[in-house]
Design brief:
Length: 354
């Protein structure tokens, strides 16, 4: 039995899924939920998702560990317990004068006003069980779980937003994130959701149209300890998938990332199988300025400890002009980009992989 076979998978018309990291115990709703993971009571850990795919959660007692202000993303491990693989931050940019950076706010970095002296904006939901609906479809009905996530108002720029997280039983490896402002918010220019922990799996390959961008080459001359920033990659450099969706993927270059230990920072030791992480933007949600943005690190965050094997990508996101209810889809799967079903056209030649 290989490592992948000990985790929970399901093949769909798109791609399968799986992953790993911190253990929690969570109570589950009854069998009538047909494969869904949800809190059973209001004081249970805030974790939702599919037993055969991706799970997501919010900071809560007994929940997936990590900083405040971040949505947790993971899967169920081989023992059936939730395990963390990445975080998703909310980063609104408001309209106005000045640089983009000066008009931007960060959900995990800002101090909370609702919880004084705590770093990270409060994230919460009034729908602890989520809303489960059934959609008529053939050959079998599709179930959809929806959770509205409230975000504490940002003090840095006055943005007041919320995120609706959705999952569908026919695509258990994907988390749909629809973003919207409250009526009392400062006008929004962009409302980005970003995957923040690429260094955990040591993501080094960015899959664009006809080429791979390798973080080791991109950041080869950098010797500092901070974030490494480079240019954006516009829509015409992204892959196209399905019925015109925009797609970008990130993978590690390592065959067995779990075999690499990080003694100086044990919590950075990757414990899962090799995974593909990706962002997909449905065709009807694409704006003309859609682009990919990554940054990287040579050392682990808040340390001087080098990342084994060289620099890797840390934040991984897509950005575009804000339109209320626009959707960004984050995916996690053990399937290689070359093995997606349907196949992805325009992938880089195999000679670029190393």
């Amino acid at each position: 039995m290989n490592r992948a076979s000990s985790y929970i998978f399901r093949k769909t018309r798109a791609v399968p899924i799986s992953l790993v990291v911190s253990l929690v115990v969570v109570s589950l709703v009854g069998a009538e939920d047909d494969g869904w993971l949800r809190p059973k009571a209001a004081d249970d850990a805030l974790i939702w998702g599919r037993r055969d795919g991706l799970i997501f959660g919010l900071p809560s007692p007994g929940g997936l560990r990590g900083p405040r202000g971040l949505i947790r993303v993971g899967v169920l491990g081989k023992d059936g317990q939730p395990e963390l693989i990445n975080f998703i931050a909310i980063e609104p940019v408001v309209k106005g004068v000045g640089t983009r950076q000066s008009r931007m706010a960060f959900s995990e970095l800002e101090m909370s006003k609702l919880d004084p002296r705590r770093r990270g904006k409060r994230l919460w939901t009034e729908q602890w069980a989520g809303e489960l609906t059934t959609l008529p479809a053939r050959p079998e009905p599709i179930q959809q779980l929806s959770v509205r996530i409230e975000v504490e108002r940002f003090t840095a720029n006055g943005a007041h937003v919320f995120v609706t997280a959705r999952m569908s039983s026919d695509r258990p490896q994907e988390l749909q994130l629809a973003v919207r402002h409250h009526d009392d918010s400062v006008p929004i220019e962009e409302l980005t959701v970003t995957a923040t922990m690429g260094n955990y799996e040591r993501l080094r390959q960015l899959w664009l149209r006809d080429r791979l961008v390798d973080s080791r080459e991109l950041y080869a001359e950098y010797t500092g300890d901070g974030f490494i920033d480079r240019e954006n990659y516009p829509r015409d450099e992204m892959l196209t998938y399905g019925d015109g969706d925009a797609l970008v993927l990130a993978t590690t270059n390592e065959e067995e990332p779990a075999s690499v230990k990080v003694p100086a920072k044990p919590w950075w030791t990757y414990t899962s199988i090799k995974l593909t992480q990706y962002w997909r933007v449905p065709a009807w949600h694409i704006q003309p300025d859609l682009r990919v943005k990554v940054n990287g690190r040579r050392v682990y965050w808040n340390s001087t400890d080098p990342i084994p094997g060289g620099p890797s990508f840390e934040n991984f996101e897509v950005r575009q002009r804000y339109v209320p209810d626009q959707m960004f889809i984050f995916g996690l799967t053990p399937t290689s980009p070359r093995d997606f079903v349907p196949a992805i056209s325009g992938l880089a030649p195999r000679t670029q992989e190393r």
